[in-house]
Amino acid sequence: MPSILLLTTSPRADSYSTKIATELAEGLRALQPASAIVHRNLATEPLPHIDDVFAAAIRKPADKRSAEESESVRKSDELVAELLSAGTLVIGTGLINFSIYASLKTWIDHVARAGLTFKYTEKGPIGLARGKKAYIVLAAGGVYSHGPAASMNHAVPYLHSVLGFMGITDIETIYVEGVSMGVDAAEKAVAAARIRIGQLALVA
Ligand SMILES: Cc1cc2nc3c(=O)[nH]c(=O)nc-3n(C[C@H](O)[C@H](O)[C@H](O)COP(=O)(O)O)c2cc1C
């Protein structure tokens, strides 16, 4: 049975995105008990940033890599296999300086691999990580799903682009937004997100 891959990325102990993403993953699991949740906490177990050795290694076939290059892609290969064997992807992130947590960007740098999660063809690139459902839980201090700040939301459009590039196009977004606009606003944001994940889990 394909797994539910839960990625949490916030370093904050009282993170809204971690809380709601975890609740969503557990709700989805309750509907498909045979699917295990595989949880990658990218904040407490950060991945190394990609470097020169990695960039060279991913452009070579495995049997042409040096020992150092093979070692540099070992973690990336593991993360790609984890993504490909998941049927559902749940990503929790905060809106950080109008984008995603850096820990999530680093995960993306490890899993967006030519020949594994996408490939180039004569008709352009195609995604190889197809057939998955993805959920993005975005916690934000302000309101970015609509209104004047929506054009500053570089998190959700970016995630749609990069997931889509890998073939993951069936995506739902859950906002936990306005959490820095007072205690009442934060409580309302969490309540609204919980209603939405309840609805999503019912139709998943
Ligand atoms: C370094 C930093 C940058 C932030 N940048 C933004 C931002 O650009 N826009 C915004 O609305 N909130 C911003 N916030 C507030 C976070 O989006 C908010 O605290 C959110 O709850 C973080 O997600 P988390 O609770 O899952 O950690 C920022 C917070 C931090 C710590």
- Whole-number count of domains: 1
Tell me about the biggest sheet?
A: 5 strands, parallel
Average of per-residue pLDDT values:
97
Question: Counting H and I runs of at least 4 residues, what is the number of helices?
Answer: 6
CATH third-tier fold name:
Rossmann fold
Class based on secondary structure composition and strand pairing:
alpha/beta
Distance between the termini: 16 Å
Number of strands: 7
Bound molecules: flavin mononucleotide
The CATH architecture is 3-Layer(aba) Sandwich
Q: Identify the overall geometry.
A: globular
Level-1 CATH class name: Alpha Beta
Radius of gyration: 18 Å
Secondary-structure map:
Elements: E1 3-8, H1 16-31, E2 37-41, H2 52-57, H3 67-84, E3 86-94, H4 102-111, E4 118-121, E5 124-127, E6 133-140, H5 155-165, E7 170-177, H6 183-203
Parallel strand pairs: 1-2, 1-3, 3-6, 6-7
Antiparallel strand pairs: 4-5
Helix pairs in contact: 1-6
How would you describe this protein?
40% of the residues lie in helices and 22% in strands. The protein is built from 6 helices and 7 strands; from the N terminus they run βαβααβαβββαβα. The protein has a 5-stranded parallel sheet, sandwiched between helices. Flavin mononucleotide binds at residues 10, 12, 15-18, 94-98, 139-142, 179-180.
In short:
With 204 residues, the protein is α/β, with parallel strands linked by helices. The chain is built from 6 helices and 7 strands. Strand 1, helix 1 and strand 2 form a beta-alpha-beta unit.
